[in-house]
Amino acid sequence: MELDERKKVILQAVIRNYLETGEPVGSRTISKYTDLKLSSATIRNEMADLEEMGYIFQPHTSAGRIPSDKGYRFYVDSMLESKDRRFDEMKDMLIERQDKMEDLLKSMASLLAANTEYATMISAPAAHRNKLKFIQLSRVDAEQLLCVVVAEGNVIKNSIIKLERELTDEIILKLNILMNTCMNGLAIEEINLAMISRMKEQAGIHEDIVGSVIDAVAQAVRSDDDPAVYTSGATNIFKYPELSDNIRASQLINAFEDKKLLTDLIDEKSGDDKENPIQVYIGEEAPLQAMKDCSVVTATYRLGDDMKGTIGIVGPKRMDYAKVISALEVMQQKLDDLYNPGG
Amino acid sequence: MELDERKKVILQAVIRNYLETGEPVGSRTISKYTDLKLSSATIRNEMADLEEMGYIFQPHTSAGRIPSDKGYRFYVDSMLESKDRRFDEMKDMLIERQDKMEDLLKSMASLLAANTEYATMISAPAAHRNKLKFIQLSRVDAEQLLCVVVAEGNVIKNSIIKLERELTDEIILKLNILMNTCMNGLAIEEINLAMISRMKEQAGIHEDIVGSVIDAVAQAVRSDDDPAVYTSGATNIFKYPELSDNIRASQLINAFEDKKLLTDLIDEKSGDDKENPIQVYIGEEAPLQAMKDCSVVTATYRLGDDMKGTIGIVGPKRMDYAKVISALEVMQQKLDDLYNPGG
DNA sequence: GTTAGCACTCGCCCATTTGGAGTGCTAATA
DNA sequence: TATTAGCACTCCAAATGGGCGAGTGCTAAC
Q1: Which residues of A touch B146 (CB under 8 A)?
Q2: What does the pLDDT look like over B184-200, one tens digit per residue?
Q3: DSSP 8-state secondary structure symbol assigned to residue B293
Q4: Could you read off the pLDDT of B8-18 as tens digits, one per residue?
């Protein structure tokens, strides 16, 4: 059977109506809702066809229809195609530029959550291809060396290195210069074994310190230990009855509490497609089992050439896709403006 | 009416039984539960008295009794008095010393949550009376100066200072020395206006930088903008039916999401009593409206002389107080051991 | 002061009923 | 041939009502 134009219109009408009301929609409703001038009986026939094709289904006999995952997929795809967005809604959200990435992302997450009424998460730009801007070693006290690493985008990481022996100021200064001249401007992948042994050679008897510093840099730049995902509005899910029963809510909130889980999800899925940085996952497509009754919309943002992160919004399947997608597009744009003022 | 010895025994029995089962407890149960050798009829009379006195009540006529807030209060107080704890349970929880306070507290929070099955929160030691260990200014690029502040307990804070003009290495070095000689070892309160103007004087034309640095130090050491409360196991509340209905759960989870709220709560209430660092808040006593159906147990811990923070556990009123209190005591001890190995 | 006995209350569970929304099918219509 | 009106049917959800059991309060006897 084919999905002809009229079926499409009816399907759209069913979905749109369901998004508004959250109730199964019946044939009579559609008959009045659309300007097709068809009786409910005709609609019923068409709806039976649509059900057979798998776009909609009945939660039980003699109830109205609700969209299946396939139905949502059709709806979202056709929306993405038609570029029928509501850009305006969020355009004048105010975002202050913050010194620290962290604060910026936190405030963006809570802004998005407040405006969409869904749960949001933002991953900090992955630094793994990120260039080192600056390394600073300084003595805190006799046994401890502070290592500060600044990467592009003012991502700052600290770590403390324990010393087995005391170092003179002079040696620390030397090490500083050595580290910076060797590693400045490099991405973490570019630091290879050859370079490390060359540096160790130059450091002479202090080669162990170089080892520690490189560990520290690696640890600082790698974000495994510090997932760096900011979430907001997890409690919004209680606004949607279909998600707020005990089991589902608990699993969802749990997922939001477990930043590590989120990082994996967000990293794995981001940016499969450079042309289409916005991805929509519906129901079972969702990357986490806990979210199988939700839809997840993610947007990959880029800062400069090498840094990218992901913004994700999690809500019920019957979320306002148009609003969410345009909100994400605005956010992408804002991030771009803030960090690439020249571009 | 007086709370004689027998009434106390019966009240204890009622409460203990309710803690175990979560069901209203009837007179027959108590008659068998205790070794008082009293018939259920007698118990009924006594329970009627206890109800009149406000220690217990019936959720509805012809149901067993459950403890009121006043009843719990009696139970907790007599437990605290008798020092009848179960220290052993958690004693050998393994806590690795972490370089960073943050990681340590996070892992402690999740450990506590996992072991108690309640929700936990830990506030980082308030740094407001904390001594500065070390300040480091370094140039990131032409327009930005990185200011790293290390305080006692290896609390590290960064901030970026925007520059209006370029500074030479020499000047930065000078400023570094100036800042460290002036402020090292000081608590933030000890930095007064006189000192600031003296420093500005010494900095000459660069007095504006000194101003910025002091702002940065203040901002770094003050923790207002970064509440620094770590939570774990918020989803544990779903394990307790009396807390997991939609409204309550949503309010509670919300409270746990809002770190700022938690900070206020935790700071306001901590350490009223130096002798009794462990406080129990039952039901309406709880410091947050969202927690009015919960009990909250807090413990104030001290690191060194000036730093203190709070650990809090939130659970249903019928929580295992003995276990929670001893767990908190163990945590206090561990923190003490880790950071004051000499004492 | 304690206990046995008994009537009573009330929440909970279950089966049954009722009403309404919505369907599928069929026959009539344009 | 496509559309529509009509009707019987299905099923959910909410309301109704009776039986069960746990537990109480009271009274009278010990």
Answers
A1: 134, 136, 148, 150, 156
A2: 887 767 777 888 888 88
A3: T
A4: 999 999 999 99
Do the beta carbons of residue B330 and residue B90 sit within 8 Å? Answer: yes
The answer to whether the Cβ–Cβ distance between B257 and A232 falls below 8 Å is yes
- Whether the per-residue pLDDT at B201 is higher than 80: the answer is yes
Which residue from A103, A150, A254 is facing B146, i.e. has the nearest CB? A150
Q: Please indicate if any CB of chain A lies within 8 Å of the CB of B175.
A: no
- Does strand C come within 7 Å of the CB of A24? yes
Question: Distance, in angstroms, between B73 CA and closest chain A CA?
Answer: 30
Distance CA(B26)–CA(B248), nearest Å, equals 28
Helices (H) then strands (E): counts for chain B: 12, 10
| Residue A146 touches chain B, beta carbons under 8 Å | yes
Whole-number pLDDT of residue B272:
54
pLDDT mean over A52-74: 96
Report the percentage of chain B scoring pLDDT > 90.
42
Domains of chain A in start order, with CATH, are: 5-67 (1.10.10.10), 98-127+226-339 (3.30.450.40), 129-221 (3.30.390.60)
Helix, strand, or coil (residue B192): coil
On chain A, the residues whose CB falls within 8 A of the CB of B248 are: none
CB B38 under 7 Å to nucleic chain C: yes
Residues 31 to 70 of A: which have CB under 8 A from any B CB?
A: none
In the DSSP assignment, the letter for residue B101 is H
Question: Got the DSSP string for B55-75?
Answer: SEE-SSTTS-BEE-HHHHHHH
Q: How far apart are CA A313 and CA A299, in angstroms?
A: 9
CB atoms within 10 A of CB B231: 21
CA distance A117 to chain B (A): 14
Q: What is the pTM of this model?
A: 0.82
pLDDT for residue B85 is more than 80: no
